[in-house]
Amino acid sequence: MRWVAPSEKDTANETLEKRLWAAADQFRANSGLKAGEYSGPVLGLIFLRFAEARFAKRHAELEKAGASPRRGNSRIDDPKAYMRDAEDYPGILHSRLGENAPAELVLLGDPKLLRLHKTALFCSARTPGDAIMRAHDVARRMRDEGVTVISGFHSTIEKECLRILLRGKQPIIVCPARAIDTMRVPKEIRQAFEAGRVLYLSPFREQPERITKESAQRRNEVVAALADDAYIAHTEPGGGTEQTAHMLERWGVPRNVA
Fold this sequence. Notes:
alpha/beta; Rossmann fold; eight-stranded mixed sheet; 13% strand; 8 helices; 8 strands; elongated
């Protein structure tokens, strides 16, 4: 291979060459390394430079994604808070919960979904096999009929029903039993959320950050109060779903218990 001298205009390569020779001089003067031993630290430095460049590139991509209104698993919108005395606050919460209505609701998504006829979905964590199959069948029917479903989608069966519903085109209102200010939209829900089909609603502003037994009960109370009718896949005697069933009965909400 024949060496070709760089042109006068190739200043970048010339500068690099000078820096490399200067680095070699530093090795000779200060490192105590022999000429044949330079490769070890040089390759290490090259690797560190490569890692730094990859990190900087990826960091820039993540920062850009963080500022985008459509950013994968990140929050893709700012949550909106509806105070209890606001005009857009659901009046049905006032009539059913009275002074116990949440002081505010925090929403991520299209709030117009709250105006639709909503069917609440509840299922105990412990559910027999036959009830599971019926719940799946009901979820498919609601999906095919375009029913707007509201639920915490927290128990295993509720999560399975959510996966079935996401295959349709109907609206879905997800009510986590935790604050959603810092929540990230899961990958499996992202497409439906971006299409305006999914609304996240929480009666919690900043706390709790994790689901608790008390926050789950409060969430179920709000879901039941917002519902126009309800489907209860299974109730465990003495459990939270049974308490929710009693509330629905007290408010005269039509329900179907499998």
